[in-house]
Amino acid sequence: MTLKIPVGRIGQWKHPKYGTIKMTQETFSQMIRNFKAKVLGRDPFIRVGHDKSNDPTFGSTKAEGWITDLVQEGEFLFALADPTNEKVAKMVQNKQYRYASPEYQDKYQSKEDGSFKGAVLEALALTNEPFLTQLPEARLLADPSDTFYLDFGNPDDVRKLSDDLKRLADESMLELGYQIVDGKYMLTNGAGAELSHLDEETKKMSDESMLALGYKIVDGKYVL
User: What φ, ψ does residue 173 adopt, rounded to 5°?
Assistant: First the structure.
């Protein structure tokens, strides 16, 4: 299971305590870069709510999930996280918690050398009352974010195709930007590219192979 939780969107807001809060493309780029570089020195985690007053000791907040990646989709930044318990996964799945609120520093200072690293995400709180507006909902994914398996997890379906259809399917899917991993076609950036540049006979065979894989053809595009 993977949680896909919104971190924020590009925009600005007026906060009664912190003044103007801005999230820009540079904010997202810094967060992603610093996450991958492990600037924080630990993994950022998922908590429920921001309130730390009930913690008996400093640092005793339980992690409801550990963030494994930050990905940007258009004007939104998302965190992918592994839940630490089934309860939090079900709370997101059942929409008990639909949104999230980031805990981050715009100008994070390294504890090791004192240098300033820019925006760093420290934690992400599940909440139904985020200060940031117009955010997507948190989701529970069965597979990694935005990955589509054309054979629905069964690589034997692809292997049953004739050699010619299999070869053509591979060529077509590579043209569409897919990767072939363990006999599965995987796409990480959406689906539905056009193949208008193919000749008529190749297009026909490509259509047959894609229909055999469970795709539909909508406006000249292959769509799950």
Answer: -70, -35
CA-nearest of 32, 27, 1 to 13 is 27
Sequence-distant (≥ 6) Cβ neighbours of residue 18 within 8 angstroms: none
Asked if 64 and 97 touch (Cβ cutoff 8 Å), the reply is no
Residue 40 is predicted with a pLDDT of: 94
**pLDDT at residue 63, as a whole number:** 92
Question: Buried (b) or exposed (e) across 116-142, using 16+ Cβ within 10 A?
Answer: ebbbbbebbbbbeebebeebeebbbee
* Regions in the chain scoring below 50 on pLDDT: 56-58, 143-161, 190-195
| Bridging pattern class, strands 184-186 and 179-181 | antiparallel
Phi, psi of 128, rounded to the nearest 5 degrees: -105, 0
The answer to whether 186 touches 166, Cβ cutoff 8 Å, is: no
- Residue carrying the six token digits 């570089």: 37
Identity of residue 25: Q
pLDDT value at residue 170 = 75
